[in-house]
Specification:
Helices cover 29% and strands 38% of the residues. It is of the alpha+beta class. It has a seven-stranded mixed β-sheet with strand order 1-2-3-4-5-7-6, with helices on both faces. Strand 3 and strand 4 form a beta hairpin. The radius of gyration is 16 Å and the shape is globular.
Length: 154
């Protein structure tokens, strides 16, 4: 006897202004220093590649990418904190890297807080390598926090 397991279906689509309230709610739940709605709105207006990930028709993650001149810069990638640790971030990351390749990017870059150990582990496990440090890049509870710069050839 065999059982068929059904997993929730995730889907990806371009972010729309109607998504911003949910995106900002997830952002605020995930980060101490979240992006504002106006930052997301500016990314949409500027034509950045802004994507959402839905799980059973519920928005549960998003990514913002800037692609130009053969490069992709992942500016923001986030999964609802209640769903983190289940592989959705990895799936969203890989979907975004596939998108970057489809628009002829041959390398990807991102910054991440050293204190965000889960993200650092994810990026390293997906073949990203640390290529530098941006000193005092992020706001922190006390002072500023450096950013690790990661890169990957696509």
């Amino acid at each position: 006897m065999s059982a068929v397991l059904e997993f929730p279906q995730d889907e990806y689509r371009l972010m729309q202004e109607d998504d911003l309230a949910t995106v900002v709610n997830i952002e605020q739940a995930a980060y101490l220093f979240p992006w504002s709605e106006s930052i997301f709105r500016d990314c949409l207006r500027a034509g950045y590649a802004c994507w959402v990930m839905e799980l059973d028709n519920e928005l549960m993650g998003y990514a913002v990418l800037l692609t130009a001149v053969g490069e992709c810069h992942i500016l923001n990638l986030c999964i609802d904190p209640e769903l983190q640790g289940k592989g959705y971030g990895r799936r969203l990351l890989n979907k975004m890297l596939d998108y970057a390749k489809s628009v002829n990017a041959n390398s990807a870059f991102l910054e991440v807080r050293p204190s965000n150990t889960y993200a650092v582990e994810l990026y390293e496990s997906e073949g990203f390598n640390e290529v530098g440090i941006r000193r005092d890049y992020y706001p922190a509870k006390i002072g500023r926090e450096d950013a690790m710069i990661f890169a990957k050839e696509l």
